[in-house]
Design a protein that fits this description.
Number of helices: 9
Distance between the termini: 27 Å
CATH architecture of the largest domain: 3-Layer(aba) Sandwich
Number of strands: 12
Number of domains: 2
Strand order of the largest sheet: 8-7-6-9-10-11-12
Helix content: 25-40%
Bound molecules: NADPH dihydro-nicotinamide-adenine-dinucleotide phosphate
Low-confidence stretches: none
Radius of gyration: 21 Å
Largest sheet: 7 strands, parallel
Length: 309
Amino acid sequence: MAIVIIRQDGKIDLWKEALLTEAPDLDVYSYYENHPKDDIEVALVWKHPEGSLAKYNNLELIACNGAGVDFIFEDPDVPEGIPITRVVDTKLAEDMSEHVLAVILAHLKNLDIYKLQQTQKVWKTRDYHRISDFKVGIMGLGELGSVLAKDLVRFGFEVQGWSNSPKSLENVNSFAGDDELSGFLASTEILVCLLPLTDKTTGILNKSLFKKLPKNAFVINVARGGHLVDLDLIEMLDNDHLSGAGLDVYHQEPLPTSHPFWQHEKIHMTPHYASVSDPKFVVPQIVENYRRLKAGKSLLNEVSRDKGY
Ligand code: NDP
């Protein structure tokens, strides 16, 4: 039984070394080296080249190297009928939570405006906001969203969340399903998207949704670029319905230099690095799943092919 690592970001050696340090008995190959394709039973993937998984006739597990599996379902040649697992990791959730908190606090305290003023040597005070001024609404109360919700509550924010099924988190108002989306939006002043990208959530951050938010709401998308209709966001920022947006993810990454987001004064961008799988913390669960697969046991963090997340 052997593992192949397929990714295109130059990090294969890093992951290979981490896997072999954790479990020296494993046979681990890079997709880009000569390797016995028929021996490969596990593919560890992150944004693999389309069609690459179909080359392995004896594949038994697709292990996603991150939390979001949308890129796997976008590959029309992804083998059917074998399990897909993803990363669920405390550090990944904590990192995401810290990122979103930083974006929210920067907005409350006008840090981006002051940075701009500094470059122009402008001394001008701005009214600031307090944590108690805003209700944060999180779309997606899963592994990442629920940790963020708890942290925001700890910081003193009023917090509510929206998910497929109702949740019971202390001091977090839970909304669920399409019927409760409008009510959730009507009372959300800072909206954070932490949904998986699926057929149902593609383009969900659009004009009609933004209109249901109160005037001056702030939007944070740290999930996937495909959730957002870019021009709808720009329109709602330009007509002052929304006060600003913090974006970490984009339709095309890196974002083309011609894209209007780059120049927009109300958009605060980070380059899809809110939280990243760290081999140190993630490799043990991948090895554990490899062992479980060999022993015929149920796998950790399996994705539902039906739901797409
Ligand atoms: P989970 O699968 O744990 O949680 C997803 C949540 O979204 C669940 O609460 C689920 O509801 C809810 N949901 C899914 N579909 C719908 C829908 N149609 N309507 C309402 N709610 C829905 O995912 P994670 O929290 O682990 O990750 C979320 C996403 O974050 C990832 O898919 C990835 O795209 C993104 N991400 C971004 C990173 C970055 O650096 N920017 C890093 C890591 C992840 P229910 O609980 O009822 O099933």
